[in-house]
Amino acid sequence: QVQLVESGGRLVQTGDSLKLSCVVSGGSFSNYAMGWFRQAPRKDREFVATIGKSGLTTSIADSVRGRFTISRDNAKNTVYLQMNSLQPEDTAIYYCAAAYKITMTSAYDYWGQGTQVTVSS
């Protein structure tokens, strides 16, 4: 059974940086493209970033491009989301997800439980 566990979310101030982690167990991590999504209160879940199996291919949502970076460490079965210059509108639950093919849609096969990021003004 594939499990994804996110960590690193917390309350921060506007302009701060934060790095989220997601550890994958129960599967072959290097076989998955990985993605980050977020869902703010009363809003739909939205794509944030995705990275291919080898880490060479990435895509970042326009809303966070230039501030957020996705990376992965296949030796640690972990994907990261580095978030810089955080703004109140970045407040959301952040989810990581695993897919057999890289995609910016929500068509991922496995999902984590999420980690809360709150940015105060």
Summed up, what is this model?
With 121 residues, the protein is an all-beta fold.
Our count of helices gives 0
Beta content: over 45%
Rg, alpha carbons = 13 Å
Order of helices and strands: EEEEEEEEEEE
* Contiguous runs where pLDDT drops below 50 for at least 5 residues: none
Task: Give the class from helix and strand content and strand pairing.
Answer: mainly beta
Question: Share of helix among residues?
Answer: under 10%
State the major sheet: 7 strands, mixed
Termini distance?
Answer: 40 Å
How many strand units? 11
Mean pLDDT: 96
Overall 3D geometry?
A: globular
Question: Which descriptors would you attach to this protein?
Answer:
121 residues; mainly beta; 50% strand; globular
